[in-house]
Design goal:
The complex is a heterodimer of chains A (about 350) and B (about 280).
Chain A (H helix, E strand, L loop, with lengths): L3 E10 L2 E11 L4 E5 L6 H9 L6 E6 L2 E2 L10 E4 L11 H11 L4 H14 L15 H13 L5 E5 L7 H18 L2 E6 L2 H7 L2 E6 L2 E6 L1 H6 L4 H6 L6 E8 L2 E4 L4 E3 L11 E6 L5 E3 L8 E4 L2 E4 L3 E8 L2 E8 L8 E5 L6 E4 L12
Parallel strand pairs in A: 3-8, 3-9, 6-7, 7-8
Antiparallel strand pairs in A: 1-2, 1-4, 4-5, 9-10, 11-12, 11-14, 12-13, 14-21, 15-20, 16-20, 17-18, 18-19
Chain B lengths: L5 H29 L19 H10 L10 H32 L5 H10 L9 H10 L6 H9 L2 H13 L2 H10 L3 H12 L1 H16 L3 H6 L8 H9 L8 H31 L4
Helix pairs in contact in B: 1-13, 2-13, 3-6, 3-7, 3-10, 10-13, 12-13
Classes of the chains: A alpha+beta (about 350), B mainly alpha (about 280).
Bound molecules: adenosine-5'-diphosphate and magnesium ion.
């Protein structure tokens, strides 16, 4: 059990700095998900926590201990890799036992821990098999088992589910969450998949280009994104963004439609801004409506089974609406409205969230 | 080939059988010659069917030796060859694995320089550097010794290069997993790399064993003591017998014996050998 503290971590490979001044405080027992697009530096951060990469600057503390100069094996962590990194010539039992043997645990203790992990992960009947005789999901479990038997204070996962098919991924996600509940150990999990982030995390860290964009609970990240990047990255389908300008009557979009100002709290000090709205928050009607509603053509419809996505355009901008099933008429046009309380406003310059002037 | 047309089948078999005959015929003749007495082997026409002196010849070769190497039993020469070939094979594998390990897994100054220096020795086999190498071996008093026979042949760029390629295909995560598990460099080498490369080692062993076994020039140069003769140079000495006609039956018997160990090695390690050359999954 341990907390993990990152203080002003930087990392450079040669002259290029890929992680800039990252600070975060992860509490004991939290499930942290570090999420961001590919190449943003999330693996590098994780590998620095593991001790596989040295930090170029800053401090890492696990528990109360400064671990900057400790070898990975002395950091009381365990790591699960994306490609599992199982020892190909060892059977499942030995894959799990290898680390324990090096730690000089007794034979009995090793046997006990491996059996325990095998039972938890339903690997009992595969203990004598080689990794290549296992399916992807089973290999994944073995990799988990190898981490589990170490009884670490922090689990580190680097995209552990991304080599699995969608169904298994979901199943493993649920099991991982259960495992976390049972063990209560701090877990740091890296992924590019925002669904995994939303479903697994107690706390999400959104990373972009080597910088932390926002840290918060899934609800905070979803409902109060700190920037356009976070808003666009979290949520599927992503938030719609529409450039807009102040005008007398409210906010004028690029096609001339004006979102009426009467109930809007618009940040007043900027003329140009970007309006964001989640697809499921846009109201839709196929009956003709009056003022405040915008008539749009529906370009096409994507059926998801549980609901559907409507694609339309406003000026050059694509707009996605998410709707529940129900009306199965073939929709080609309709009227939409942007509820004032569902709008986000972002800076035209740097994409940061603009504070709404409270009235 | 999936096709099973009779004509294709016939032709492919025909060609294969021709190939087998071509390779097998000289060996058959060797065997036939080894089973007749010396007198029969100087009469024309030469026999094509085995005679009944096989075991006599075998005993004779093992106990007395032949021609210039008279008094040197074939058994001793076989032993010398075996020791030399094994020393070369194990030495080469050990040295080249370790150098490949250093080059792939450690960052040290002039790493690539060292790699290319090793690589350049590809152009310098023993035959090219035979005089300086002889000088060195002589100065180290290793003439007429197993060390002298094997050490100059041990360093190998090819094998180093091969192991380097093998190690490069081992995913980095494996090393990282081992580091987290607490394995240092030596543990990683012994517990992970060695078993992973076992098919490559086997393939290399077969190739290098035969390379060592077939050495002719180098042993000829540095052994003056008859006790250190190897079988391959021994055969040559037998043919050069001066005062009498070559004892073909005994020479052929010796040749037959000289062929055996490489054949045993190849057959014994065939499965691993093929795996080592073709397997890509690590
Ligand atoms: N060993 C390395 N040497 C040089 N550059 C690296 C190295 N590892 C990662 N990088 C660079 O650092 C950046 C972040 O990589 P990484 O942390 O792996 O991203 P991701 O968020 O996809 O996991 C990338 O631009 C990558 O090219
Ligand atoms: Mg990564």
């Amino acid at each position: 059990m341990a907390e993990v503290i990152l203080e002003n971590i930087t990392k450079s490979f040669g002259k290029t700095e890929v992680v800039h001044n990252v600070s975060a405080h992860f509490h004991d027992g939290e499930f942290i998900v570090i999420v961001g697009p590919s190449g943003c530096g999330k693996s590098t951060v994780l590998r620095m926590i593991a001790g596989l990469e040295e930090v170029s600057g800053g401090n890492i503390k696990i528990g109360d201990k400064l671990v900057n100069n400790l070898e990975p094996k002395d950091r009381r962590i365990a790591m699960v890799f994306q490609n599992y990194a199982l020892y190909p010539h060892m059977n499942v039992y030995n894959n799990m036992a290898y680390g324990l043997r090096l730690q000089k645990h007794s034979k009995v203790e090793i046997e006990r821990r491996v059996q325990e992990a095998a039972q938890l992960l339903q690997l009992g009947e595969y203990l004598q098999r080689r990794p290549r005789q296992l399916s992807g999901g089973q290999r994944q479990r073995v990799a988990m088992g190898r981490a589990l038997v170490r009884k670490p204070e922090v689990f580190l996962f680097d995209e552990p589910l991304s080599n699995l098919d969608a169904k298994l991924r979901h199943q493993m996600r649920v099991e991982l969450k259960k495992m976390h509940k049972n063990l209560g150990t701090t877990m740091i999990y890296v992924t590019h998949d925002q669904v995994e982030a939303m479903t697994l995390a107690d706390k999400i860290v959104v990373v972009n280009k080597g910088r932390i964009e926002q840290i918060g609970s899934p609800d905070e990240i979803y409902n109060a994104p700190a920037s356009m990047f976070v808003a666009g990255f979290i949520g599927c389908p992503p938030m719609n963004f529409l450039p807009a300008q102040h005008s007398n009557g409210g906010l004028s979009l690029e096609n001339g439609f004006i979102i009426p100002a009467k109930d809007l709290l618009i940040p007043s000090d900027t003329r140009q801004l970007i309006v964001g709205i989640r697809p499921e928050k846009i109201e839709f009607s196929h009956l003709q409506r009056e003022s405040g509603w915008l008539e749009v053509d529906i370009d096409f419809i994507e059926k998801l089974g549980s609901g559907k996505l409507l694609y339309t355009t406003i000026g050059p901008q694509q707009l996605i609406l998410s709707m529940a099933n129900g009306d199965d008429r073939h929709i080609t046009r309709g009227w939409i409205r942007f509820p004032a309380e569902a709008l986000y406003f972002f800076s035209h310059q740097d994409g940061s969230l603009l504070k709404v002037k409270s009235s | 080939m999936i096709e099973q047309r009779p004509l294709t089948s016939f032709f492919s078999h025909f060609i294969l059988i021709c190939g087998v005959l071509l390779v097998a015929f000289p060996i058959w003749i060797t065997f036939v010659a080894a089973s007749h007495d010396t007198a029969r082997m100087v009469q024309v026409p030469l026999p094509l069917l085995p005679g009944n002196h096989f075991f006599e010849n075998l005993l004779e070769a093992f106990t007395h030796g032949v021609g210039n190497a008279k008094g040197q039993s074939v058994g001793l020469m076989l032993m010398n060859s075996l020791i030399m070939a094994l020393m070369i094979a194990f030495g080469k594998i050990a040295i080249s694995m370790l150098s490949a390990f250093a080059i792939v897994y450690f960052r040290f100054p002039f790493r690539m320089t060292f790699f290319w220096m090793i690589f350049i020795t590809l152009m310098l086999p023993v035959e090219v550097r035979i005089l300086p190498t002889f000088e060195v071996v002589a100065n180290l008093h290793m003439l007429n010794s197993y060390w002298g026979l094997s050490i100059p042949l041990i360093a190998s760029a090819t094998a180093t290069f091969m192991f380097r390629q093998t190690f490069l295909t081992v995913p980095d995560e494996l090393l990282e997993a081992a580091r987290i598990d607490g394995a240092g460099p030596i543990r990683f080498f012994i517990d992970i790399l060695l078993p992973i490369s076992r098919t490559n080692i086997a393939a290399l062993f077969v190739i290098v064993f035969i390379y060592g076994w077939n050495q002719y020039m180098w042993p000829l140069l540095i052994t003056t003591d008859k006790d250190m003769y190897t079988i391959v140079m021994g055969i040559k000495q037998m043919v050069e017998a001066v005062e009498e006609a070559p004892e073909w039956s005994l020479i052929m018997m010796t040749t037959l014996l000289a062929m055996l160990p490489p054949v045993v090695v190849v057959i014994g390690m065939q499965r691993l050998f093929i795996k080592g050359l073709t397997e890509t999954e690590k």
